[in-house]
Amino acid sequence: MTDAANEIRSFYLQGTAGPLEALLNRGVDHASYAALVCHPHPLYGGTFHTKVVYHAMKALHSFGWPVLRFNFRGVGGSAGEHDHGRGELDDIRTALNWLEREFQRPLILAGFSFGAATGLAVACPDPRVKAVIALGLPLAPIEDRRYDYSFLRSCAKPKLFVSGAADPFASPAELKELVDGLPPPQKLVLIEGGDHFFEGRLRELRETIENWVREMLAA
Question: How many angstroms separate the CA atoms of 26 and 67, rounded?
Fold first, then answer.
């Protein structure tokens, strides 16, 4: 890719709770898709710089796509306060709206952990989003938060789920039961030896995303 395609832009989106800090890896002018990557739980150190988010961005950007990352409300330079997954849905819509206006291309959404749970809820019913990627999708309750993925049973877009086989927040058996019950096309990849943060397995994570994108584009 050219230097222009590799350009990183730092700016703010105008969200419903105030400005949201954002980073855009530009991509090529003739990109077939634009992508959004959502970060993990804000109260546990999640930001758009989290390693898994960065590697997901790199995987998607390798296809020349523009890739947007942003900090949820109350994180980094973003205004507002954490809203326990409610207002964060609006933050994701703000990011998708900006991508659609800016690039006028079909969209792909990827999210890690909290970003996967909230991202799927917004992306599945949004016709502009053509495929979704869930990394480290949490299934076990965390403090006062319980996850309900019943909406996925009506999500017929291409879906990739990637988790570490040793992720304490979602067992392989639970993930397989969830994914097997969803409409195709869907794929579950368990990375052996991987924990929730894919420590020591980030290259495998990135390659898994890239291989699945190639399969999706060839379908």
Answer: 7
